[in-house]
Structure formats: C-alpha cells, structure tokens
Amino acid sequence: MACIPSKSEESAIEVSPENVSSENLEDFIRTLQTREGWSQPMVLYKNYWCRPHLVGKIILLQDIFKPRSSDIILATQPKCGTTWLKALAFTIINRSRYSFSDHPLLSSNPQYLVPFIEIPDPGRDHAYLETLPSPRLLSTHLPLSMLPSETSSCCCRIVYLCREPKDAFVSRWHFENKIVKGSNIELNKALDMFCEGFSPSGPFWNHCLEYWKESLVRPNEVLFLKYEGIKSHPEESVRQLAKFLGVPFTAEEESSGVAQEVVKLCSFENLTSLKVNQTGGVDHGNKIFVENSVFFRKGSVGDWANHMSEDMAEKLDRVVGEKLKGSGLAF
Ligand code: PAP
User: Fold this and answer.
1) How far apart are CA 246 and CA 235, in angstroms?
2) Which end of the chain is more exposed for a tag (fewer CB within 10 A), N or C?
3) For the domain bounded by 22-324, which CATH number is listed?
4) What is the value of pTM for the model shown?
C-alpha cells in the first residue's frame, strides 16, 4: 500500500526537479539561486542561468517532448546566430518545396519558421511539437545536458552554432537594452556578469563545451559550427550543412548555383531588406515585446571592437581562454 505522507511530512519533503509538479513549481523556483543585473532576474537551474518562467517549461519538456530519430535540432546560445542558422537550415531542407522567388522567408521572420522546443511559438504549448510531421526542424537555446536524454539515444541530429564570445557578448548587451523598455545596463557591468558566467543560458563557455565535446564523440550526429566560419565561407558552409542534414546538393543543383541562392536568400542584407523583418513583433509578456527587427543589428564579425576597450577585450579573452583550455575549442 502506498504510504501517504501526513500534511507535516508533506511540507518537509524537499521539492526537487524529480518531484516538481504544477502545484509545487513556484515553491521549487523559490529554492533556486536568484540574481539580478540583466533586464530580468534569472535563476540558476542545473548550473545554467535562465529566466524563472523557463524552468517549468524545461521540466515539462522532459516528460512531453518525444525526440524522433529524424528530428533536426538547431542548438545555439542566444546571440550566436540562431536567426541565420534557422533561415539556412529551413531553406536547405525545404528547397524542393519552395521556389526562391515565393519563399516563406520573404514573409516570415526566420525565428518563427523553426520553433524552440523549450518555448514553442507564442500561443502554442509543447503538445504542438508532437503534431508536427517528420522530419521536424526544431531549435533550442538549452545546453545539451538539459535536453531529454532520448535526444542522444534516438540519434537525432543536432547542429550547434557558436560565436566569438566578445561579439556574442556585445550582441547580448544591445539586445537586453532593447527588449525591455527603460533598460540601460552599463557595458562594464554587463561584462563583469558575463565573465562570472552570469548571462542568459550562461556560463557561455560551458554551453559551448558541452556541444563541442559531444561533436567529437558523435560527429555524425552533432555538427559544431562557428558563426565566423559561415561568414568567411558561406557557400562551403551551406554545402556542409546540406550534407550533414542528409540532403546534399545534386550535381544539377551545383551547376545551377543553388548553394549561392541559399546564401543570398538568408543573407543579413536580404533579410533586413524585407518588410516582415522591419515591422511587427511578438509580445512575450513580462514587459517583453520582441520586435522582429531586434534579431538583426550589425550581423558582422568583430563589431565588439566598436564597443569594448582593449582591457575589456583582454579580460573576456582571458576568462574564456582559461575555461576552454585543453578542450581543443578556441576562438
Ligand atoms: P537569438 O539569440 O535571439 O535567438 P540570434 O540570431 O542568435 O538571436 O542573435 C542575433 C544576432 O545574429 C545579431 O548579431 P549582432 O547583434 O552582432 O548584429 C544579428 O545581427 C545576427 N544575425 C541575424 N541574422 C543574421 C544573418 N542573416 N546573417 C548574419 N548575422 C545575422
């Protein structure tokens, strides 16, 4: 017979990720370390910083999300090129369905063409993900250790895109000050927090390292890319991506310049010229209104130099260098 705890015993039971439910979720979140400094307070959950409202969604994901072997998950840390990767992967995978002149990217922001598994599109819950036909193209900002364990056992493919930390940091700082009205975080203060590992989805280096190590162990299932690599060799990167996703370009496609077309359609210049990416946006609640245009700023490599002093750059380089030491990953 199951032993039913008395009321006093019940309140003594510690709420943990294993026994958290919709009834005790708020209690559980209150047990987590909280810190302020970015535009919204964050909590430390499983060694990563995230917005409190995300914790329940991540826990729910473990039960509800059923990875399929045909799934493709685009994983990034925020500000590392998510929008670009979504546009590229969506275009590559759907290239036989849509012509370049009448393409969904011309009327939809790339962010909303590929749903996040932890935060499905506004107005949709996790059950929506299960209604999507295979192969599903999905995305996440979660570290590898927070993905449901079946993600690795079912052998679905993961593309991880990372970015030079100083550029990712500067992009994050701009974004934070943009999405919340009245937010005015000082660059120096933001850098201190970032270097302490305190940033949304941070510590930055741990997130990269988890996927980096997995890509070395399972290279056929985890592809590790760098933003700077795509910038310097866009067509090669598109070919590499198509091959990894199991849809390499045919000889005919090569001779008709499909890789170049993909690069052009998804380029920063093209996407920022479209009305859909200049207007409108989505209300995420909690005083956060994310304009479609906020996903596009400079779209360049090395913009950090326009914001950070040499000392600031050295500081972040030093921290990242120490954290990545011996891993084989470097920026
Ligand atoms: P997310 O983290 O909010 O999901 P993400 O796309 O990763 O968005 O971050 C936006 C960054 O990608 C911006 O960088 P910046 O602040 O340094 O400019 C944005 O400009 C850049 N970006 C968006 N689209 C493209 C693109 N097509 N090509 C290159 N960079 C892009």
Assistant:
1) 17
2) N
3) 3.40.50.300
4) 0.93
